[in-house]
Amino acid sequence: MLRRVTFQLDYLLSAQFAGLIVAKRSGLYKQAGLDVELIEAWTNVDRWAKTGAGREPDIVARKYENDDSILCLGCVEQNVLVESQARGVKVKAVDAMIKGSVLALAASPSITSLTSLRDLKGRTIGVHADSVDLITALTKNSNLENEINIVEIDCANKYKLLADDTVQAIQAYDVMEPLEFSQMKEFKGREPLMLSLGKIAYGNPGYSQVIFAPNDAIFSHKDTLDSFLEATREGWAEALKDVEHAGFQIMEARKESGTYSKSGQQDSQQVQTRCLELMGPHIGHNVITKVSAIDPKEWGQSNEHMASIGIVSRMVPLEASLQLDL
């Protein structure tokens, strides 16, 4: 009998989850004795923006409390997970799919230089609901809190807002959105200027798409968790070995689930394949070592840094934030 696993994504099915998608569609999870359900964030875009974005750890923890016979997992940005822990949500990081945060700001065509936040003085930045606190803290730490306007935007129409200069920068992944923007007529075939936020926010490269689990589930479902992480790493290895086929699998998964990008920019095998190629250097560590991509020392330093500049509301001790003995 297959062991059930639910996995809460913080975005749509796309290249950033290629390892999960390939592991599921290629049968790697089933071979490991697992029945894995990938749950997209945007089954209802408007509702998710109001109640789900940035609350994925709460959702997963609550789901496990309601039914602890199933291993409930999820993934979020590092700052989102640590802030949830600071609020008392009993979850821990167990691995990261992307080593070195790819979180960034993308500039509109009207911006001709973007080397620091100061280049956005007097401008408006559009951010997702789960990153408002992060961007606000970064502007405050740069003494720009009264100089830069921060607005929460719907992920689904952020491309249009940037293209028509309603906002002059938006939150983005520097391995995904630049390629999508270049296909829009407003960008005339060029990629937008990008400002990487990883080291600024975390004090070191940090992590993206951090896999987390409820504290109790880590021990109650240890064998299942180990099997899931191993199969997921194999999924990433397979995806990186044949990125074109992985791009095809991503698009097939999107079609089957009804996933679509309102801008239309992600609905292309070419885009998904190229995004995966760009992500390759960030995934290699995880695949090659077959152990957690998270360095405990770096993770602890990031927690201290985020607390010191107000990205998270309090310092979360390493042992309460990262599972150290997997």
From TrEMBL:
This is Thiamine pyrimidine synthase. Pathway: Cofactor biosynthesis; thiamine diphosphate biosynthesis. Belongs to the NMT1/THI5 family. Signal peptide: none annotated. Transmembrane segments: none annotated. InterPro entries: NMT1/THI5, SsuA/THI5. GO terms for biological process: thiamine biosynthetic process; thiamine diphosphate biosynthetic process. PANTHER family: 4-AMINO-5-HYDROXYMETHYL-2-METHYLPYRIMIDINE PHOSPHATE SYNTHASE THI11-RELATED (PTHR31528:SF1).
